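This part of the workshop introduces the protein records we will be handling. An example says more than a description, so a record of this kind follows.
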Amino acid sequence: MGRKFFVGGNWKCNGTIDEVKKIVNLLNDGKVPSPDCVEVVVSPPYVFLPLVKSTLRPDFQVAAQNCWVKKGGAFTGEVSAEMLKNLEVPWVILGHSERRALLGETNEFVGDKVAYALSQGLKVIACVGETLEQREAGSTVEVVAAQTKAIAEKVKDWTNIVLAYEPVWAIGTGKVASPAQAQEIPLCQFIHSTCPLTTGAL
């Protein structure tokens, strides 16, 4: 059976307390299908997680935007999976393109992070996707295959993973990813053959 529709919103490094409250109010007043049909997850910055979690409607869930690759310790600025569990935050985003590009997170490092987060009981939104240069070079499938394989080598059960295809080339470039491009047959066939329990995409 396929996964239900999944809608995720990453707020990135934005917002103030007042702005976050306004967004939560808008979400709380929104009309969405039953949770049996669609799963909604929002990802505010760390500092707003408790506020959002305590005021967001109960059929919506929250996600952290990242977590550390292992148990906490002397890792200044990081947040551990254990901390997120303690806050009762059910989801975490891992492998986001900005962390890959700006902070040098490799495919293997992302795979390790996904495996550890799952081991601590978190659900993972694992991001994959190619840059504009990679797409124009015709290497979309190769790039996404490598990113997905690095996770597959560390994870056997994909039940608690949503694989989010993120067309990096459509972010801030003025180019728009069409539904057809996001569902390209070679890409989808690879993903389904690599992680057959995962049918959701973001």
